[in-house]
């Protein structure tokens, strides 16, 4: 029977999963994580021709081939091949941007461009993907460290810089999709207008309205115009008594990450 074990073709006599992956050290498999066709299992399932098996020793980082095989099996090969070559920029690495970046890294988007000029502060920790050990670090550096723990094979470029009308087009020239994740309305408008005017063909996924703790069901995604999508409730800015809370911010970030995925796969709203 032909199987694929950790990305390598193998012609084996076995017909059951744990006969194929039994650990020679202890004769069992308690020290291993076993993934069959993208899904972890502890059952000794029957095998079929061309099944894909990934075996990872517990507590160890899988190699690049093993991780890619896992993602390919979970996403289906056609989906993974599209996103692994994609280049996505995240402009602003706060509550929106840090969560978007982590979602895209977990999906296996191959190239992430992280842009922010700020440092991690205590006030960030209620909704952003940073930890106490990151306090005082540039957000670009801290988030790059986080992504390396999640998927060390994502190619991460960082720019610790403030985007302006003068530099945005050149800094973003290699990116396919740009996530606008700023706090300031003026910065949001600047980025959207600059990219649409000076970067033909690039898609912007922007956000507006995710403050407070109102219903998450009011957050939505809509196509504003060609190459521009907007996520949020479009009504609820941050203000005294209605701050930015993790749940709604993360819901909006999830909308943005999902729209990026749809753009990369050609699933565009008309």
TrEMBL record:
<feature type="domain" description="ThiS-like ubiquitin">
    <location>
        <begin position="1"/>
        <end position="59"/>
    </location>
</feature>
<protein>
    <submittedName>
        <fullName>Sulfur carrier protein ThiS adenylyltransferase ThiF</fullName>
    </submittedName>
</protein>
<dbReference type="GO" id="GO:0016779">
    <property type="term" value="F:nucleotidyltransferase activity"/>
</dbReference>
<dbReference type="InterPro" id="IPR012729">
    <property type="entry name" value="ThiF_fam2"/>
</dbReference>
<dbReference type="InterPro" id="IPR032726">
    <property type="entry name" value="ThiS-like_dom"/>
</dbReference>
<keyword id="KW-0808">Transferase</keyword>
<feature type="domain" description="THIF-type NAD/FAD binding fold">
    <location>
        <begin position="78"/>
        <end position="267"/>
    </location>
</feature>
<dbReference type="Pfam" id="PF00899">
    <property type="entry name" value="ThiF"/>
</dbReference>
<dbReference type="InterPro" id="IPR000594">
    <property type="entry name" value="ThiF_NAD_FAD-bd"/>
</dbReference>
<dbReference type="Pfam" id="PF14453">
    <property type="entry name" value="ThiS-like"/>
</dbReference>
<keyword id="KW-0548">Nucleotidyltransferase</keyword>
<dbReference type="InterPro" id="IPR045886">
    <property type="entry name" value="ThiF/MoeB/HesA"/>
</dbReference>
<dbReference type="InterPro" id="IPR035985">
    <property type="entry name" value="Ubiquitin-activating_enz"/>
</dbReference>
